[in-house]
Structures are given as structure tokens and as C-alpha cells.
């Protein structure tokens, strides 16, 4: 089923696609949910038979972009493809999971439903979209961040569906381990904190004063949640993005409402709530650790943090945390409280999921082109390069030119698409040796 077409920006034609799928793919006659996708095409080429590109959004719990035109990677994509932007199940318009309703379920049912929103179910949803709306036509994939994890799972279970795959900042380890990931994460986040301090040396004292104020006073956010120091530290989620340092800088720029610094400003509190509340993507936190394996993860980030006392909320200078999930978040953050029982059950349980078929990936023949960001705060470049050696037909471009959001900020998509076109014999080589083999930028 699809909706009528409409314009996005001046010259991009959109139509809306709905696909009914089982909540549990192993129980096809049971409860169903709806998966939403938006198709975009250059309005001047709407009647052409163009190759398909499906965008695999970051996450987990990610909805596809809501573009205003040829934003970011869409500029390169719309020159070549009819683009399909799905909302992952449970997010956006795809039968969303919300904490208030989720809280009415017991812990076992919450955990069961959360486990049904992982990579295996998402890829089966994509196959349903492809079959329902495109007659099973093979498509290209573009995976951003967690979308790379989805890509390797897709290649493990249905490589015949894919013409070629591009991945940006999302090559996971084929031996997923939350412990291993967080052991590597904290040193990278420490380095990002140091870079932030060098960039804005005038902020260290101000941030410390804000933290001291929060320790001494019961400060409430607009939604009623108490703002604690450890919640303040989660502003560091942004540090791996190109504009992340600037965003955090401007939050603290308006921290105080008075010259004597006795009251935090309404603007500051509203911005902190927006950046740390996860109202728009609660599954991003609820499923974060489960993407690294089948569990139990047993709060891997929590345990890793204990080995790094400089990240303690009482330490000064205050260190911001990164893409890490802690148990306290499901007590202190309103949008996450309803998921608490299920997340705790999932963190302590083994819920089998066959993420990657190593032999099948080793024999892979689908061309895969991946951008590996050398200084990526979220996806460890070392683990990504170990994966490169274990997946057939996978070529990597290693660069420190971009942060984790390079796909949205630079010409990453153009480079990846061009390299794949060259490998498929579809286009000349515009970047010379840059498109062949492995490039390293130091």
C-alpha cells in the first residue's frame, strides 16, 4: 500500500509505503505491526526505471531522515537511485514503542518484545518491503553506523537481495562482545574530552561550577526529571559528530540566568532535556548493548566505567561520557522508565540471535565499499579493520577527514557510490587511486 506522491523541497518526489509484517517472524500468524518507508526520487526522473537504494539508518532504534530536499547523502543518491528510507520497526511511524504503554507489560513480555526489534527482524522487514513494493527487485544498500551492522547481517542471510553495499562508519566486529567494545570506548571518549578542552579552554571551570551546583541543589528539568551530574555527563554522546563540540559549547554558553551564577537558565535546562531525554528514540538506549551480541551484557558500560575513575561524576574536571548506557538512565530519564524492567531482564538473559555467518561472509561476492573513520568515537576502527580481513569483496577507505557523521557532512556517499560503480564496470574512475584498494589518511 502506498500514499499519493508529494514534493520534498523543490524537486524531490516522495511517496509513502506501508508494509504489514509479523511482530515475531517465527510466528507469522500472530500479532502484526506496520513498517513505514518513504520513497524519494528526482521529480524529473520519476517515471524512469532507476536502480533501487535502501538506506539502513543508524541506531538501534533509528528512523530514517526527514529531508528538506537533497540533504547530505541524498544529493549523491538521487543522482543515481530511487531511494527507500525505512523507519526501523518500533521507531518513527513503524508501530512505535513508547515507554508509557510499555510500562503496562511485565518484565518477561517487555524483554520478549525488545528482542523482536533487533537486526534479524529488521532485515526480514526489509525483505518484506522489497517483495511487497518492488516485486523482489535487487537493491543497493547504504548503511550508516548501525546500518553497517545490519548490512553484514543482511549479507549473512540474504546476499542475493543486494547488488552492492556501501557502509559509512559501521563495520562491526564479527565476534560481537559488549565488553570488548566498551574496553576500547572509554579511552577514545577520554581523548575526545581532551580535544574538547583544548578547543574550549574557557569552559572547564564553568562546567565544573554547573556540576557543583547540581550536586548541591535539586534542579528540575522542564519535564520534572531531576538533572543530576551523571545525566549532564551524557551530553558527550555528541562528541563523535562533526558539530558535537560546538553544540555542547553553546549549551554551556547560556548556562546561568544571573551574573552571580546562582540559577541555571531556562534555556540551558530546556536544551539539556532535549539532548539527553531520548524522547524521540528510546529504543536507541533500550537496545544499545544488545546490538553487540546475544547477551547477557550485564551492563557492560557500567562495569567498564568502574575501571575509569576520571569519569566519576564527582571528579573535576568533569568528563563527559559517550555512547554508553547505564542502569541509572532507566530510573532518571522519563522517556526510558517504562522500558526499565524489560531492559534489565534482557541485560541478564541470553536471547539467541545469529548476527553474522562468518563462513558465508568470508565467501561473500557482493561488492562492499566501507568508509572507516580512523578516529571514530562510536565504532572502533581497529575492530572494523579486523572485519575487513574476514569479509569477501569488502574494500575499505580509511580516513580521519570526517567524524562519525561524515555521510551527512561530506562527500562520503559520492566516493562510496563511485567506487562501487567502478568495481561493477559502470563508470570511469573520477578519484584515480583513491577508489581502488585501501586508502589511509593520517
Radius of gyration over all CA atoms, rounded: 22 Å
Major β-sheet annotation? 10 strands, mixed
The order of strands across the largest sheet is 1-2-3-5-4-6-7-8-9-10
Averaged pLDDT: 93
Count of separate DSSP helical elements: 19
Give me the count of strands: 10
Order of helices and strands: EEEEHEHHHEHEHHHHHHHHHHHEHEHHE
| Residues in β-strands, percent | 5-15%
Can you give the helix content as a percent range?
25-40%
Distance between the termini: 49 Å
Shape estimate? globular
Uncertain runs are: 428-442
SS-derived structural category: alpha/beta
Descriptive labels:
globular; 442 residues; 19 helices; alpha/beta; disordered C terminus
Folded structure, characterized:
- This protein has 442 residues and is an alpha/beta fold.
- Helix content is 37%, strand content 14%.
- It has helices at residues 74-77, 99-102, 107-115, 119-134, 146-157, 178-199, 203-216, 229-233, 244-253, 266-276, 282-286, 300-305, 329-332, 334-337, 340-347, 358-362, 381-388, 406-409, 412-423; strands at residues 6-8, 12-22, 32-42, 52-56, 82-86, 139-144, 162-168, 368-373, 394-399, 439-440.
- The protein has a ten-stranded mixed beta sheet, with helices on both faces.
- It is globular.
- The model is unreliable at 428-442 (pLDDT under 50).
Amino acid at each position: 500500500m502506498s500514499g499519493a506522491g508529494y514534493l520534498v523541497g523543490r524537486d524531490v518526489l516522495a511517496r509513502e509505503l506501508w508494509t504489514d509484517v509479523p511482530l515475531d517472524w517465527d510466528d507469522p500468524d500472530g500479532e502484526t505491526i506496520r513498517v513505514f518507508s518513504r520513497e524519494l526520487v528526482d521529480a524529473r526522473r520519476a517515471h524512469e526505471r532507476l536502480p533501487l537504494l535502501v538506506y539502513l539508518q543508524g541506531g538501534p532504534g533509528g528512523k530514517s531522515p526527514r529531508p528538506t530536499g537533497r540533504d547530505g547523502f541524498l544529493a549523491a543518491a538521487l543522482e543515481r537511485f530511487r531511494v527507500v528510507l525505512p523507519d526501523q520497526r518500533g521507531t518513527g511511524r513503524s508501530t512505535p514503542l513508547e515507554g508509557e504503554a510499555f510500562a503496562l507489560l511485565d518484565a518477561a513480555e517487555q524483554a520478549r518484545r525488545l528482542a523482536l526489534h533487533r537486526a534479524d527482524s529488521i532485515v526480514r522487514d526489509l525483505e518484506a518491503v522489497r517483495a511487497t513494493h518492488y516485486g523482489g527487485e535487487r537493491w543497493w544498500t547504504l548503511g550508516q553506523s548501525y546500518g553497517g551492522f545490519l548490512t553484514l547481517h543482511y549479507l549473512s542471510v540474504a546476499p542475493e537481495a543486494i547488488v552492492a553495499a556501501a557502509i559509512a562508519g559501521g563495520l562491526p566486529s564479527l565476534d560481537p562482545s559488549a565488553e570488548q567494545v566498551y574496553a576500547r570506548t572509554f579511552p577514545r571518549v577520554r581523548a575526545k574530552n581532551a580535544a574538547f578542552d583544548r578547543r574550549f579552554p574557557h569552559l572547564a571551570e564553568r562546567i565544573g561550577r554547573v556540576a557543583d551546583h547540581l550536586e548541591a541543589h535539586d534542579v528540575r528539568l522542564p519535564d520534572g526529571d531531576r538533572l543530576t551530574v551523571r545525566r549532564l555527563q551524557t551530553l558527550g554522546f555528541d562528541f563523535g559528530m562533526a558539530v558535537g563540540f560546538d553544540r555542547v559549547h553553546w549549551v554551556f554558553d547560556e548556562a546561568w540566568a544571573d551574573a552571580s551564577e546562582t540559577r541555571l537558565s531556562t534555556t540551558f535546562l530546556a536544551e539539556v532535556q532535549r539532548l539527553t531525554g531520548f524522547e524521540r528514540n528510546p529504543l536507541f538506549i533500550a537496545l544499545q548493548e544488545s546490538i553487540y551480541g546475544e547477551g547477557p551484557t550485564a551492563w557492560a558500560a557500567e562495569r567498564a566505567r568502574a575501571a575509569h575513575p576520571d569519569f566519576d561524576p564527582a571528579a573535576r574536571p568533569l568528563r563527559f561520557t559517550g555512547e554508553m548506557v547505564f542502569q541509572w538512565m532507566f530510573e532518571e530519564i522519563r522517556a526510558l522508565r517504562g522500558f526499565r524492567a524489560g531492559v534489565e531482564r534482557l541485560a541478564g538473559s541470553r536471547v539467541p540471535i545469529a548476527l553474522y555467518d562468518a563462513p558465508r561472509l568470508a565467501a561473500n561476492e557482493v561488492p562492499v565499499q566501507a568508509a572507516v573513520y580512523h578516529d571514530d568515537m562510536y565504532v572502533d576502527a581497529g575492530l572494523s579493520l579486523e572485519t575487513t580481513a574476514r569479509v569477501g569483496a569488502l574494500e575499505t577507505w580509511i580516513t580521519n577527514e570526517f567524524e562519525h557523521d561524515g555521510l551527512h557532512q561530506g562527500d562520503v556517499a559520492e566516493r562510496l557510490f563511485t567506487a562501487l560503480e567502478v568495481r561493477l564496470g559502470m563508470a570511469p574512475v573520477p578519484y584515480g587511486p583513491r577508489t581502488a584498494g585501501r586508502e589511509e589518511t593520517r
